[in-house]
Amino acid sequence: MGLSVLPETKLVKPFSVGTMPAALQDVALIVDESIVAGDVQEALRAGAGNLLESITLFDRYDKIGGGKISLAFSLVFRANDRTLTGAEVTEAREAAVAEASKRTGAVLRS
Length: 110
What we know:
single chain, 110 residues, alpha+beta, Alpha-Beta Plaits, 4-stranded antiparallel beta sheet, 4 strands, 28% helix
């Protein structure tokens, strides 16, 4: 049996895995029901800066009332060269929320 009978395969390119630990922060924001979740997500991304690795909408709650909804996002922060401090993560999260507030009128849900 020769190698010619083996099926053809495609090369898979490996992806890099971060060696530094990630810091996860969840935020829930109250916005007008007319606001698109993608606009809030983009504002959070812009405000968080380059430490933000990913952002995911994981909940939408419509029963707030008064024409408002709650959108909850999971933010993952990571630096390539070091472990982030709690202060760095908090600062990035607060900057993200401030930008979302500025662009969409979002208010942090307590």
